[in-house]
Amino acid sequence: MADAEVPGRAPSVCGQCGTQIAPALLACPSCQRLVHAEELKRFAVTAERAAQLGDPSAALAAWRQALDLLPTDATQHQVVSARIAALSRSLDGSPAAAKHGSGWGKGAAGVGALGALLFKFKFALMFVLTKAKLLLLGLTKAGTFFSMLLSAGLYWTIWGWKFAFGLVLSIYIHEMGHVQALQRNGIKATAPMFIPG
User: What is the pTM of this model?
Assistant: First the structure.
């Protein structure tokens, strides 16, 4: 039976020079042709298109996938690494420079802070509703939901139901923040799993 070509797996023979290539190699040992050249071109097109459409997270994800298919000593690896670093910096943004204000400005800032505190309670519900989509998305994953229940059940027997659900929910919200941050930087992430203990 002949070996079928498996998608994502390196071909066993170089298309340019005919040299046998081990599955783990990313470039031909003889002619240095990139094994995944076609996939790399697709990732580059996807990344450029995402950048043109103003979606740096998608561009970053495509460049990260391309980086995994490049040998570390290749020039292309360094170029793609530089693009990833630039996109990461653009996503992070630069911190704003601090300005020195006058005494009147400082007083107005105090009044503004008091006003913001008053508005906080009014808009707290809206803030929760805007973030609810992310939090509910994780609960649609059966592994996350059932492992949360298992953890809550274990903690319930030890510390009581109020503490158990408070702990599990606070851990869940915290971990979903990590998921959102990873996805923003183009790294694939799924909802968390809870391991009670």
Answer: 0.49
